[in-house]
Amino acid sequence: MAFQVIVYISNILGFYTYVLIARVLMSWVPDVERTSFGRILFKLTEPYLGIFRRFIPPLPLGGGYLDLSPIVGIFAWSFVQSGVVLVLQWLFL
């Protein structure tokens, strides 16, 4: 039973990783953010990614900017996911 709960929580956290990646890919196509799917992804990811945007400024590249905060956010999320799973395994297995 405990193993199933750990797998379930790990899958939920892993799904959010894919949501973050979809948000990054979506930012490359300007009009996708105006769709209902784009608004949902924005509402799901902006509270988390906004934390990193406060500390990591975008890098100027020619006529545009490169936002590195989603990359740092995805790496941080993977550490959080691994840590949560390890703590749950330690507690329940």
From TrEMBL:
GO terms for cellular component: membrane. The keyword Iron-sulfur does not apply. The chain crosses the membrane at residues 6-25, 68-92. InterPro entries: CCB3/YggT (IPR003425). It comes from the Bacteria. Keywords: Membrane, Transmembrane, Transmembrane helix. The keyword Membrane applies. Belongs to the YggT family. PANTHER family: PROTEIN COFACTOR ASSEMBLY OF COMPLEX C SUBUNIT B CCB3, CHLOROPLASTIC-RELATED, YLMG HOMOLOG PROTEIN 2, CHLOROPLASTIC. This is YggT family protein. It comes from Tumebacillus avium.
